[in-house]
Amino acid sequence: MLFRQIIHEDLGCASYLVGDTASGVAAVVDPQWDIDPYLHLARLHGVRIEHVLETHNHADHVSGHGRLARATGATIHVHELTDAEFPHEAFADGWQLRLGEGTSVEAIHAPGHRPEHTCFLLRDAARGSEPWAVLTGDSLFVGDVARPDLAVDPREGAVDIFRSLHGRLLALPDETEVWPGHLGGSMCGSSGIDLKTSSTIGFERRHNRALEFEDEAAFVEDAIATIGGKPPNVEHIVALNRGPLVESISAPTQLTPHGFEAAIAEGALAIDSRTNEQFDEAHIPGAISASAYDTGFATKVAQVVPVDAELLVVAASDGNELDAAELLAAVGLRVRGFLGGGMTAWRAEERPVARIEAIDLDELARRLDAGGGPQVLDVRNEGEYESGHIPGSLHIPYAELCDRLDEVPRDQPVATICKAGKRSGLAASILQREGFEGVMHVSRGNAAAWRKHVVNA
């Protein structure tokens, strides 16, 4: 058996290439938007991708099943409850796909995250007749379980997840390897998802906090209590994944500084994908700062721009803008164009630039102690804020800022802060774009460390 895990680092998604090297037949499970990794692996190992399998209709990213089917002629297989509008072969619980004489995939219907959700058992005759691994999709993660609220009533979903876990997955032998559909950083579980790429049924049985609940009612209450913020644009992404096959979302064109400026005037939004530090130093007026050098880039952008927005990208170097556009397409966002030559080209024509003052915790403390300092805006999530924050700070998670701008004072400077300076950089750019003056970005310093900072001062 040929088995490879492919990780989308920006979204925390995992997909898989499973094949039989003797027959030369392979399948891809839960393909990401960028299909090049699968095509490369197939060529490298001399297999043909003839099948595409989906564990469920994804809500956090656009599937690459349309692109992959077009590139390879593969058949797309989805559970019969998926209600797919594209050409496919439907399967039910217990369905088996033979990739070769000794390699097979078996479907285990495991509803909860979504009604159609399915896990896949992998068998390799070279290892014996029992399944050696299970691709758990969005059911069992390493250190966590899936969220229950994206497709059905949360309590109903939590009940189904509990029954799928205890009735199906935990019935597998302890040595069965667990390969999940998401890793730490994904919004399809809770903050408990581990960054590790795989586990075993036995390890999760002993160490996964969510599996400690043997009582269904207790599990449901915990699942409801730990639900975090939803992925952005859920309905839009679900519709794209369920509807006619999507092969392209955007084809960004290179723009001159004049063309870039004209596109902004027509209503396009500029996304600056350079580092927050580069953005603070100088950027195109009205641009939004979201560094593509950090994980979660596409999700952060999708949290703060309209789903139907036309986006423009500024990048640090040639080639990076197309990578950023692909990441944004993976969450259903359309990129109209990018600035050819980046900020170097912009500044060479002496076009206007804006700046944001970057300060550290020491400087913030000095200004607050001196009196008349800035209003501190903490843009972390609720749990982070409750665990520790600067006294007197205003709390608005960055994803909610655009809808709550009227809560931010305009009669004094505002200093944005988070944990590592990334979300606060995005928030500072939003405030400046919306006309707030004297915006500061606490680019270095964790709001949760404020007490320790003061003690050490």
Overview of this protein structure:
The structure is a single chain. About 30% of the residues lie in helices and about 25% in strands. With about 450 residues, it is α/β, with parallel strands linked by helices. It folds into three domains: about 1-240, Ribonuclease Z/Hydroxyacylglutathione hydrolase-like (Metallo-beta-lactamase, Chain A, 4-Layer Sandwich), CATH 3.60.15.10; about 255-350, Oxidized Rhodanese, domain 1 (3-Layer(aba) Sandwich); about 355-455, Oxidized Rhodanese, domain 1. The strands form five sheets. Strands 1-2-3-4-5-6 form a six-stranded mixed beta sheet, covered by helices on one side. It has a six-stranded mixed beta sheet with strand order 7-8-9-10-13-14. The longest helix has 14 residues, at about 155-165. The protein is globular. Mean pLDDT is about 95; it is low at about 455.
